[in-house]
Design goal:
By secondary structure, the chain is mostly helical. Helix content is 21%, strand content 5%. A two-stranded parallel sheet has the order 1-2. The longest helix is centred in the N-terminal third of the chain and has 17 residues, at 25-41. The radius of gyration is 15 Å and the shape is globular.
Length: 116
């Protein structure tokens, strides 16, 4: 992605649940890339393999996702965070050049004016 900095290393969670255990070289390389990024940026909440579990259950169980949080995920289960009062990307307007122009990094999200 070319990210140079992380807005808040304590508010970012990286879970390699879809790529571990590695089924092939490409999966292993994906996990290595994420691991190196997490180490370089000193990400507080990095999870890989072992007894980690599935991201969509793990993060709420650890109290890392809650009401008002904006969750940027990568699969069809990300919308489950809506049940916690969080804002999954499926609810964001599709016409905006920025996915969430009203949200500042690290802030809690409020429903934009004009939404019904």
């Amino acid at each position: 992605m070319g990210a140079q900095e992380v807005f808040d290393r304590d508010r970012v969670a990286l879970v390699c649940d879809h790529f571990t255990p590695n089924k092939d070289i490409e999966s292993a390389e994906q996990v290595r890339t994420v691991r190196e990024f997490a180490l370089e940026k000193k990400i507080t909440h990095y999870f890989e393999g072992g007894d980690v579990g599935v991201e969509h259950a793990l993060l709420p169980e650890l109290g890392l996702v809650g009401p008002g949080d904006v969750v940027i995920g990568a699969d069809s289960h990300t919308c489950t965070y809506g049940g916690l009062g969080a804002l999954p990307p499926a609810w964001a307007p599709r016409t905006s050049p920025q996915p969430w122009p009203w949200v500042k990094p690290g802030s809690r999200c409020r429903r934009p004016s004009g939404w019904k």
